[in-house]
Please model this.
Amino acid sequence: MNLSKYNIERCYIAKRSNTRPGLRLTIGVPAFFVAHDTGNPGADAENHYRYFNTLTGRSASAHTFIDDKQILEIIPTGTGPDPGEKAWHVLYNVTTDNERFGYNANDAAIGVELCYGGGIDFEAAYKRFVWYLAFCCTKWNKAPRLFIPSHKQLDPARKIDCDNALKIGGRTLKDLIVDVVAEIAVSVVPSPAPAPKPAESDFATLPVAVATELIDKYVRPAWSAARAAKQQPEADHFHRLAVNLRSAGGVDNQLRPLVAAVKLHKSNVQEIVFRWLSPAWYAARDAGDPDQAKHYNAIANHLRAAAGMPIE
Model:
């Protein structure tokens, strides 16, 4: 399949016991993938991020929300650098998942939600939904026909998703599985590699002040939290992220000048923007602080420039 057909964006909600408990999946990686729809016509992926990031009073969440423009992971799944975590997307006292897979869905499965209705283009959202499920099956070597149950199949007395959304596009769960299988089978013919750009014009040096602010405000606290939780792989990841930010600013870990700045990884930019800067931007906007929102946008553009990406 074409593993780069769509971009998987990651903007994680805060850790709270009723939405994101911060616990690893039981076996470390997903055992199966539950196909949901949101049951909330017209609400897109960003709407659901904001909802679950502030939800109180009940336990509910899912890992991934997909609309016609985004594939947005709001709880780590393991598709990126962060290990998969539990989410509350199927009731614990329903045992169909245990009987069928040997695990409870909250403990061992990724919950994937299809956004639909209102102004959401169903076909565009459906294509992303199919691709993401195919991506997960490919990554973890799972057969779609065996490892993609719908929420309705796991809890038929209460739930009708994802059939509820699929019928808008004249699809059934059987059609979804067939399309996932077909997506996996697609052969990708590699295109000729583009001519390399001159190194001196490929990226901009990240201002050291920007690198320092990001490390002090976000990366170092995340590293400390990972160390305190004895999550060494995560701590190592945040250490490498800090090293990469300083190198993009042309300095080493002691802030001594390097011979030349090192181009920042695009994945580093995406992680920082969606893990920290995007939520901070939304918070500043909602608080009526446009200057602070502009500040976060400027930092994001410095990061993009340091990775040779277009600014926004």
